[in-house]
Design a protein that fits this description.
Radius of gyration: 26 Å
CATH superfamily: dinb family like domain
Strand content: under 5%
Shape: globular
Helix content: 55-70%
CATH topology: Four Helix Bundle (Hemerythrin (Met), subunit A)
Distance between the termini: 67 Å
Number of helices: 6
Length: about 190
């Protein structure tokens, strides 16, 4: 009986030692590649460019999906119309892509919420084209520069990049809600074929 208890104690200690050691489980190939990959050069500008493609597709898809006669729709009297949301997105893209990338803001005709759907969609498309061009030239060498963010508020250029990414998410989510309130499934919720 003492032998059994001694063997059991020894086995328990060995199991405890084995369990306390870090696992030597091999990583999946994709994780191993990431672990061994070189650091990303210009991580902020690279991340913005990466986010831009999906943002552009979903946002322009939302504008296309909203019927022209619903561009004056707003969920409550206090909220902006869908057309106003689109004009806001256009100005936002042109301003913050320029600030983040340290390029001049494009000289464009100011969009009005009463403009036609086609005109607003064209202006929104142009604003995303500008962002693609501006961010394509961006690197991270100037993200620490102090700039005017908006309304006289100063901050590092990195703040403009962060506002840009959070603004894209905010604008698309607002557009998606407006679509859903009109019985339309937003682009990001549609099945991929």
């Amino acid at each position: 009986m003492k032998r059994v208890l001694a063997a059991f104690s020894l086995a328990t200690m060995c199991c405890g030692l084995l369990l306390s050691q870090p696992a030597a489980t091999p990583l999946p190939p994709a994780a191993a590649a990431r672990q061994n990959a070189e650091p990303v050069k210009n991580p902020v500008s690279t991340a913005l460019r990466s986010m831009l493609s999906r943002t552009r597709t979903n946002t322009l898809g939302a504008i296309e999906a909203m019927p022209a006669d619903k561009f004056d729709y707003k969920p409550t009297p206090e909220q902006m119309t869908f057309g106003h949301l689109v004009t806001h997105m256009i100005g936002f893209n042109n301003s913050f892509c320029a600030k983040a990338a340290d390029v001049p803001t494009p000289k464009v005709e100011e969009a009005k919420e009463t403009d036609s759907k086609e005109k607003l969609l064209a202006a929104a498309t142009a604003s995303f084209d500008f962002c693609k061009d501006a961010l394509g030239k961006m690197d991270d060498s100037k993200i620490g520069d102090n700039i005017e963010i908006f309304g006289g508020h100063q901050g590092p250029r990195a703040m403009a990049a962060l506002i840009l990414s959070s603004g894209w998410a905010d604008h698309y989510s607002t557009a998606a809600i407006y679509l859903r309130l009109n019985g339309i499934l937003p682009p990001s919720a549609q099945k991929k074929h």
